[in-house]
Prior knowledge:
The protein is α+β, with helices and mostly antiparallel strands. The chain has helices spanning 9-18, 22-28, 34-37, 41-64, 72-80, 104-110, 126-139, 155-173, 186-198, 214-224, 241-250, 253-259, 313-325, 365-378, 392-404, 421-424, 481-486, 496-500; strands at 147-151, 204-210, 272-279, 283-291, 302-303, 306-307, 329-334, 343-356, 382-390, 406-415, 433-438, 451-465, 468-476, 492-493, 504-514. The strands form three sheets. Strands 4, 7, 8, 9, 10, 11, 12, 13, 14 and 15 form a ten-stranded mixed sheet that branches. A three-stranded mixed sheet has the order 1-2-3, covered by helices on one side. The protein has a two-stranded antiparallel sheet with strand order 5-6. A hairpin with a 2-residue loop joins strand 12 (451-465) and strand 13 (468-476). Its main location: cytoplasm.
Amino acid sequence: MSSLTEKDRPIVQLLLNTGTCPRCILRFCCVGSQTLYRCPYKDLMKDLKEFLKNNQEKEDTVCSDVVDPPCKRIRLEHTEKQPDDLNHNGALQQIPSVINENTAVENSVIEVCNVCLGILQEFCEIDFVKKVCQKVNSADYQFTSFVFSVSLPPQLSVRERAAWLLVKQEMGKLGLSLAKDDIVQLKEAYKWIIHPQLSEDLFEVSVVFAHPETDEECHFLATACPDCFKPAKNKQSVFTRMAVIKALEKIKEDDFLKHFPCPPSSPKNLCVALEIQCNNGAVFVAGRYNKYSRNLPQTPWIIDGERKLESSVEELISEHLMAKFKADSFNFSSSGREDVDVRTLGNGRPFAIELVNPRRIHFTAEEMKGLQQTINNSSDKIQVRDLQLVTREAIGRMKEGEEEKTKTYSALIWTDKAIRKEDIAFLDDIKELKLDQKTPLRVLHRRPLAVRCRIIHTMKSEYIDEHHFRLHLKTQAGTYIKEFVHGDFGRTKPSIGSLLNRTADILELDVESVDVDWPPTL
């Protein structure tokens, strides 16, 4: 075991005798060789035993060169006269100093490690690795990258602290020091062992461990640091990993040693793997949609728990994506939104859908084109175009356009008093008209009360009859067009009604363009 040196010998002997497994011993000896941790458990135990034996033989050789060394018979006779718990110098012997095949080494093979509670023993062997692989294969995921995570019982931090204090004390006798940060973290060691055995190409595999005695072993921390442990929603116990770590940072070493055994006591139970979770990173699909119905909301329309309309733009698009990507759920976003009775025409409105934990992630351009056609054939209420895979970062460009870009509308307007063509002609000459729009009454239940300054860049009127005309507008994104027409009881100033000096209302509204240059045209 070339990674261990002479200075590690007392630490190896100390930990092995107290019931610590070989891999945890390597961690406390600050061994950073990943390959060494992957050796079979029995081989590691054998190597540690050989390491101690070789060093013992060297010591015996050195002793034989000393003038008039005490013979073994004298030493044995001397120790026989001492109490069982005293060493040959007459000092209290807390931990056995002699390792042989029939004592600590053999016991540590069959005993659960008093530091990792068996995680670096039972759950690093090939049988458990096969279970993980079976879970991955049965989940039927496509994947191109590997993330492996581990969730550990909180009391492992407590036991590790106790073992560290033990090693620190022993090294202090040798004039050496050991910082907590020097120890190889249990999570890292576990990943070094498991990660390479799974596959070269994986996504995310997470193993969640638990132990039945977590609350019992951590309870003393709640007395010493009560402010660290507070009940939280969706948490079965206050002894979370972060809370325990926080408490361990606060508690003094002397107080810790009063409440927790050092070295850690032999555990009654092995850790259990509660679940093996598989998860793919989210996939993002973007495109543009047209909405041709005046009775279709963008997202599900639910009021007081009651659904008002049977479908939505979001659902008509996402149901096909969910089926093809085999995702768990989705999140829909778009560059602005239209009301349920407003159509979106022209080149459509940019949208993006985040598909959470998809099983399938690889799609060719032709497959995406076919998926787009499937969506378009499924309904006459919407159509999508430029459907494509994008990155999470690219979606930010769509959101930037919500307030910064312009939008073009077509509004059919009614007036109470008769109008002539020349009565509305002046609207065509108005440029960069500034509005003050107080939050509309119709959205006040979901938007904060505020006065927003918006700009109507251009208007072009189209006379229909003495009570109707069509108005084409190019506006700043975020402008409330309906309120600009009727005034919203004076909450939008000026309005078409105030400019014409008569009552005006909007009968139909269409979005003709959303001037956001995203996603790229295909």
